[in-house]
UniProtKB/TrEMBL annotation:
Keyword Transmembrane: no
GO molecular function, one term: 6,7-dimethyl-8-ribityllumazine synthase activity
Catalyses which reaction(s): (2S)-2-hydroxy-3-oxobutyl phosphate + 5-amino-6-(D-ribitylamino)uracil = 6,7-dimethyl-8-(1-D-ribityl)lumazine + phosphate + 2 H2O + H(+)
The keyword Transferase belongs to this UniProt entry's keyword annotation: yes
Protein name: 6,7-dimethyl-8-ribityllumazine synthase
Biological source species: Calocera viscosa (strain TUFC12733)
Keywords: Riboflavin biosynthesis, Transferase
Amino acid sequence: MASESLKGLSSSTAALDGAALRIGIVHTRWNKVVVDALVAGAVGKLREKGVKQENIVVQEVPGSFELPYACSRMIAASQQQASNAAPDLMTASASLLSMETDTPAPAQSGASTAPFDAVIAVGVLIKGSTMHFEYICDATSHALMKLQMDAGVPVIFGVLTCLSDEQALQRAGLGDSEGKHNHGEDWGLAAVEMGTKSRLWA
Ligand code: DLZ
């Protein structure tokens, strides 16, 4: 009999189909090597679950402290776009995203213009010798939770809060350590699951 491990995430019992979903990813440039691997892991799982490439919108910010604001603006802009409340913002936003991230502008590609079903905030905080780490971890995690509750849109907490470089590498599936695992993959799956369920729960 296969034994289940005590800790960690078990597979979803729901069949996940992301074909109709639109997902935003905001990632930091701080700790880029690790962040890039996490984003690749998330995108890989989104694609594996059927999310179309043109419906994955990727934006970058400097550091984790900027993630809540950026996620908030992306969600709000997509909601305004969908309700045609701000066509200019829609166009500006689409071309900005297109320019910076290779994400095709909706008008050009036939990509969805629906509001985001979920947004993934990806950052890596590594403890240093000052209190920066504690303040940014605390502010960022609370703001991302508040955002998803206020906006009614799932915000996936893709922020690693690590005590060492080795911890960060291991959690991005990098390095040589035993048991390494790319948590970005879990975040991609969580986005599909929560995006799908939030439609059911609307
Ligand atoms: C300032 C700072 C520090 C010390 N460490 C990190 C980090 O480990 N990971 C991260 O994502 N960002 C860090 N930052 C930058 C802040 O998040 C933020 O970008 C700046 O304070 C500007 O608001």
